[in-house]
Fold this sequence. Notes:
- By secondary structure, this protein is of the alpha+beta class.
- The chain folds into two domains: 4-102 and 219-236, no CATH class; 117-207, Chitinase A, domain 3.
- The protein has helices at residues 14-23, 27-40, 47-53, 55-60, 64-74, 79-100, 104-115, 128-140, 145-152, 174-181, 213-236, and strands at 4-7, 10-13, 117-125, 163-168, 188-194, 197-207.
- The strands form two sheets. The chain has a four-stranded antiparallel beta sheet with strand order 4-3-6-5, sandwiched between helices. Strands 1-2 form a two-stranded antiparallel ribbon.
- The radius of gyration is 26 Å and the shape is elongated.
Amino acid sequence: MSTAFTIGKRQLKSDEVLPLLSGHSLWPQLMQGMVIDRELRTMSCTREEINEFYRRQIDTDPDFLDNKKEQLLLEGAADEDVEFFVNRPLLLDKFKKQTFLPLAESAFLKMKAGLDKVSFLMIRNKDHELLRELYFRIESGEESFESVAARYSEGKESMSGGKLGPLELKQLNPVLAKTLSEARPGALNPPVVIDGFGVITMLREKSPAHLDDNMRKQIVNHLFNEWVNKEVQAFFY
């Protein structure tokens, strides 16, 4: 006999869940949650920490924690697991900070080149001869980069007169990233071939990455995601 549980206004039977997990490709997320929980169950937190973590919600609704526990039970959580799942967001935050925050500075130094951001102009066209002609038109001042990009570029940048960015260098094709990382702002870069397209670029601005609070958080999440992927491989495969 299958067990029924409630999600919002909908009641589901347990034998409906497995097809939904497969159909919506939720197994990878579940696998990640399992390896994370294995680590978090070794940790603890105080009532004061929980109240502080949920301060905003409790100030709005004094019964927030009780309602959250009740909802977890309705959604099928076991009685003995309810407290853990209420505490889980705080435990996860503590785990990330304790484990990966001390590594953020050294990771930043290794990753910095890819974290720098660039704003640039780009034209790409699969007709390489045409692209060379366009390059000389721009170089000679016969036409502006923006007007040529709007008419001839075969990418989304044609809609903005060739303007792209700011984008992190690591998000770009390696050839494009190398070209822009070595370029001088305002200098027209000779055509290169990237994925079959002839590409002309001009660097507008380069913004070096700095290790501020937002960057630390980004790097901590990056290190955490790397750890999760490794743990999933080790635990399930």
